[in-house]
Amino acid sequence: MSIYFCAEKKIFHLQTANTSYVFCVAEHDALEHLYYGKKIPMDNIKYIGNRQWYAHHAHESRESRDFSASSLSLEISPFNSGDIRTPSVAYNVGGDIHCNRLRYRSHKIYQGRQPIEGLPYSRETEQTETLEVVLSDDENNVLFTLYYVVFADVDVIARYQTMKNTGAGSLSIQRFSSMCLDFYGMDFDAITLEGIYLYERGHVSRFPIKRGVFKCNSLTGTSSHNRNPFLALCAHNADEDIGEAYGFNILYSGNFMQEVSVDYLGDTRVVAGIDDTGFSWTLGAGESLVSPEVVMTYSDQGLGGMSRNFHDHIRQSIIERKFAYSHRPIVINSWEASYFSVSEEKVLALAESAKDCGVDTVVLDDGWFRPNDSKGLGDWRTEKDRFPSGIQGLADKVHALGMRFGIWLEPEMVNADSDLYRTHPDWILSTSKLPLISRKQYVLDLTRNEVVEAVANRIIEELQGAKIDYIKWDFNRYMTEAGSFVSPQGEVYHRQMLGAYKLLSILKEHFANVLFETCAGGGGRFDLGMLFYSPQIWTSDNTDPYARIYIQNGCSYAYPLSAISCHFTEGDCTSGRESTYEFRYRVASFGSYGYELDLSKYTAEEKAIFKGYSEEYLQDECLNLEGDLYRLISPEETDYYAYIKVSKDKKKAQFTFLELYASGLVESMALRLKGLDPEKAYKNENTGEILHGATLMNVGIRIGDLYRKKRSDGYTIRFTAIDE
Ligand code: GLA
Q1: Ligand 1 centroid vs 162 CA: distance in angstroms?
Q2: DSSP states of 597-608 as a string?
């Protein structure tokens, strides 16, 4: 059991293995937050909330001034409710702003959880328990239900809420976040993952929060290349191993916000969910709206602990079970090999040569239905001159070679030059006579059900009968003027996401055993919403290994290694920078590994090297799928990157050291490993040497000793625990 309710004190205590989350029904039936952090005992919670009087704070009681919503920590805070801090929801009835005070009405606790209809959510495990708390605003006939879904073993609590209009008139929502969380004090650093196309999540941005409001958000209609829905709040002294760290992430792929505000009392509030810029939603009589889910975790073992909690939770509950812990295809993707000039002949040649490299899946990327990016999106008609056997025939030929077959799609888009757009010019997200264009394409209006169904049907028809094992689902432009011919303007961005998730669900149901990899012009939608549908995401079009180190390191703060799709490529297509094969392999094997280059150009000796890489990767793939990651050196703070992946039973580990710049100091550097069992003896599989976990973690590895070979290659040591 992980959710407790003390009826006498009206206290809710949510307990995970190492954390406690506590709130209560306070005076005037307000829902007061009491504590979130390291686990505390059940029986000694007192009211620890703020009952001071501050000038200008309005209070409920005529007799006493010491209860004001403005100084309480709250579980939800509507605008115009007496709390003058950043609200977590804002709504009005019939255009008038009313007083929106919420009172606790009831709650229920149960095993498991309800799925969230139409949106991604954390799937239940045997341990999952849910608390629903109902609050009402009786003056306006509004009901809120706050959901707390507890995943005790991984120290994760998921939160979301629904809002229902129980009145006869309509109600308009201007802000509808998924959660509100108040902390005493402001002694936190915030960490966000910042970037840009070709450098997605490459900057792990850390800064002390100050009084005022900090907002990490996206207005692109995607979670974006530039920002990410992940946020950490940690102690100023928190590092990879020690110190308190809270992590938050939103299961949403559209306009999101993580807002951190420090008020005049010096306290911190986190509000997370849908970004409210331009948002407004009308609820008719009896209608409801559900928010996206936010997951949060706490660790007193620093940022490493926070990341590992999230990795475990994502693998266990967000990624579909049937893929989460299973071998991921080692693909050869046609994009960097042929770009748009791909053909059946080239794909088969690629498949032939990839067979010798330990590759198991051939992916036909963009170009199978169009000669360049200017036409064909939306029509999805295979180019018969370049693909004479059609997709079905090609897939059969690839299977006959003993390989699996994957295909690229971009279902949410339409080219301006397409029959679909010519027939339905009102099916795009723009009501302008001259819509803004990007990559010669428009975003389809998925707020319209008929569009969702037409796209799904066309794709299903075109791929009918083809043996498809893998789909790469791309999305190559932002929503820049998201207006719909039919849907209300303020609802378009969110309805568009609901339509996109619906389209994903329809096609996933049709291609039931197909592994989906999502992508958005590289890594423009690397988020938990997408991971609910696709076990892995294309991380970035930048495959220069030096840049990839930063990009992949950034991703690892919030996302498990198996979700981070990485390819061995020519290495220099974005940067022109040279790197050795081995260095490229070491960097790419950080996540789910594959290839993206014209393997038919390489010699038998080179293919044998690549085959060796595929085999080495497979030996340790289980560490990506199930193990723990310990980041050892930050590339942002040093000229190196090092990490160790350790199996849960601590019997197997893989340590990797990569040098970004030859700064001369590595010879004398001793690097302490982490995550091993101090009591176990480990065999260094490269040298045969046997060392104790305690020695490896306290004395460390002398990096100079590794470099009897080329420094520019990077270095990996595999450790196996031996029975003594
Ligand atoms: C995006 C993807 C690439 C490739 C191209 C095809 O940029 O990130 O990997 O699929 O689209 O147009």
Answers
A1: 37
A2: S-GGGS-HHHHH
